[in-house]
Structure formats: structure tokens, C-alpha cells
Amino acid sequence: MSLINLRNNVTNDLEQIYLPNEIFDDLKMNLDRTSSSHLGFAYCYYLLISYLYRYCKYETDGVLLKQDDLKELLGYARKNKGIDYIIKDGGLLDNIGYTESTSDYPIAWEFAEDVTELSFYTIKDLKLSQAMSVSINMRNYKIKRPVKAFKRYSFDELLTGTFYDISNTHCHNMELFFKALESGIGVIGYYIYSYLMRMNSMYVNGYDEAWDALCIKTGIPSNTLNRYIHKLEENRFITVTRHTAFSLKNKGKKNLANSYYTSSPEEILLWLKTGIEPSSRPLSKISAKLLDSKPDPYENYEFPY
């Protein structure tokens, strides 16, 4: 299935996926810092398999999506071996408890009568029911099951994952995700957008962060981060307010933390389709103080720069 077909197969706006907020730290802590470019791939791969499982899209018209297909969907060569350590059996995502391999993929889903618990009907259930013969070639076929979607923590006995409990999560509009892959934002850009989106959910008037700190918190090197921040701005995924304050006492120029605002998926999709700009966003209050060892009479002044 091509990326365009998969995007067109997003049937409605209700096809959303929630990911755990801790995924950013979990990936950073376990990926080699020299492989920071793989952060975007690992993040988007987990989002993609969560979507394919939740909405039962691993099989379409008798064709099964395979790992090579998922690589291609995420912008990598089908035979790229450099990222296999992340997604293979016993790979990084398996080892940190985010995925596990299974040959039993979902083919239908439903909510129980009380409309509170999601359940899946799998290919194994179909075989056991003998309702119909299974003609799809499944020899050696396996998928990755998104473990955190079912159980958030290894000690949980109940279904506490993001398919069942969306507390401390961030939400993804899947149409926007596929559009980002098509439009050149790619997995790294979408990973950065997702991090900023998550922070904006806590800082609704703008997420203020120093550049060096943002590099550390995202795990993305400065040059790469700068390139994708500009690309996200150009495509209206984010707005950045760059603050510069001047200390009149020292006649020195001090750079304050930039403010980051993420556009809503609806705003971005509207701009990509029609060119209508996202709504203007209020400037966040500059809370950083001018750096000086002594009190500065202008420290509470909000400079209009």
C-alpha cells in the first residue's frame, strides 16, 4: 500500500492515536546519541504501528503490510538495514517494552456493550471460528504489537495502555501525520512538532525554551534542529517568537528564550489544502530576567523586540 493510499484510507477525523508522554524520554535514554536522527524514525514507527493495529489496517484487499513497507512509508529505503536494530525481533523497541512480535494481527475492532472497553477480533480468532477459509499467504508473517497501547507499565494487570486510558498522553491526527511525511517534514520534523505539541498542551500561552535546552530535551543536534524548526515554520506547523532584550545598564545584548506555538492539525491541514493562514497566536509573557549580578532597574520591563 502506498503512502497516498494509506492516507486516503484514513476514514474520518475520529481516527486518532494517543501516545504516552514518556516516549520522548524513553527513546532518548535508549538510543545512542550519535544516532539522534533515528529518534524520529523510532517515534514515528511506533505511532504508525499503533495506528495500523488500532484501526486494523495491516491487511487491505488481501495484501499484508510488511516491515519493508513500513520503512518505505516512513521515508526510508525498503532494504535499509541501518534502522533494523530498532524494529527487529529483540531490537530496541522490544527491549524497552514498547513492542513485541506476533503473527496474530487484528482484522476488526469493537467496543463492548458498556462502550468503555475496546476489543479486537484477530486472524487467529477467524481461523478458530472456521467461519471462512483464510486464503491470505501468512507464512512467516509477523507484525509488531504496540505494547504500551495495552499495558502502560510491565506490572499492570489490567488494560491501562493508551488504547484504554489517555491520561498523560498526546494526541495525533493521522491525516496530518501522513501529510507531514508527504510534504517533506519527514519523521524528524514530525518528531520535533510532536514534542512541541506536547509541551504546548502544558504551556498554552507558548512554550518558552532556551535553544541549548531544546536540543538536549529533544535529543536533536543544533544544526539539525535549526533546519527542521525553519521547515516546520514554513509549513505552518509551528510559530516561533524570537525574543531579544537589551540591557541598558551593560549595553550588552542578551538573548531570551524563544516561544514556540504549535498550530492545530485542523489549521495546518487547512493551510496545506487552501493556503489559509493559521490563526494568530498571542505572545507569551517574557518571564526570563536580564542576566546581571546586581539588580537591574529594567528587569521587569517587557522589551518590544
Output the keywords.
two-stranded antiparallel ribbon, disordered C terminus, Arc Repressor Mutant, subunit A, three-stranded antiparallel beta sheet, alpha+beta, 17% strand, 305 residues, 12 helices
Average residue-wise pLDDT: 83
Structural class: alpha+beta
Biggest sheet: strand arrangement? 9-13-10
Question: In total, how many beta strands?
Answer: 13
Helices, by number, come to 12
Instruction: Estimate nothing, just give the exact number of structural domains.
Output: 2
Helices and strands in order, then pairings?
Layout: H1 3-8, E1 16-20, H2 23-30, H3 37-54, E2 59-60, E3 63-64, H4 67-73, H5 84-87, H6 92-95, E4 99-102, E5 106-111, E6 118-122, H7 123-129, E7 143-146, E8 169-173, H8 174-182, H9 186-200, E9 207-209, H10 211-218, H11 222-234, E10 238-241, E11 244-247, E12 252-255, E13 258-262, H12 265-274
Helix pairs in contact: 3-9, 8-9, 9-11
Summarize the structure.
With 305 residues, the protein is of the alpha+beta class.
Description:
- The structure is a single chain.
- The chain has 12 helices and 13 strands.
- By secondary structure, the protein is of the alpha+beta class.
- The chain folds into 2 domains: 3-169, no CATH class; 185-305, Winged helix-like DNA-binding domain superfamily/Winged helix DNA-binding domain (Arc Repressor Mutant, subunit A), CATH 1.10.10.10.
- The strands form 6 sheets. A 3-stranded antiparallel β-sheet has the order 9-13-10. Strands 1-8 form a two-stranded antiparallel sheet. It has a two-stranded antiparallel ribbon with strand order 2-3.
- Strand 11 (244-247) and strand 12 form a beta hairpin.
- It is globular and about 70 Å long.
- The chain starts with a helix and ends in a 31-residue tail after the last helix.
- Mean pLDDT is 83; it is low at 282-305.
